[in-house]
Design a protein that fits this description.
Number of helices: 5
Number of strands: 2
Shape: rod-shaped
Largest sheet: 2 strands, antiparallel
Structural class: mainly alpha
Order of helices and strands: HHHHHEE
Radius of gyration: 31 Å
Strand order of the largest sheet: 1-2
Strand content: under 5%
Helix content: 55-70%
């Protein structure tokens, strides 16, 4: 279930309970094998590997279920507006023309 949820890029709210359930079941399996190691004939190195894998599962569960940012960040304001707010078009600038020009000439030169 976790693999299929990851393949379809499921949300954190959907994946977190799956990881919690998996981690709980894995903990029960490790505990059972430790208790019944001799009865089941499980080699000691297998128990060690399962404990290591369970520790990685717990780390991954904590990362998935943390309240940090999830997934890629959304678009920024400039992305939503479609580019820079102030146009940088150099072709429309004429010499002697500027912000203070009026229909009758430059107000600062009068």
């Amino acid at each position: 279930m976790i693999k299929s949820a990851g393949a379809r890029k499921a949300s954190r709210e959907e994946v977190c309970p799956l990881f919690k359930t998996f981690a709980a079941k894995e903990a029960k399996l490790v505990s059972f094998l430790q208790t019944n190691q001799k009865l089941c004939g499980v080699p000691p190195n297998i128990i060690g590997q399962m404990k290591t894998n369970h520790a990685r599962t717990l780390t991954m569960r904590d990362n998935v279920c943390s309240s940090g940012p999830s997934g890629p960040a959304g678009p920024t304001l400039s992305d939503a507006l479609g580019g820079p707010i102030i146009a940088d078009d150099q072709s429309s600038k004429e010499p002697g023309r500027g912000t203070f020009d009026t229909l009758t000439g430059n107000a600062l030169q009068r």
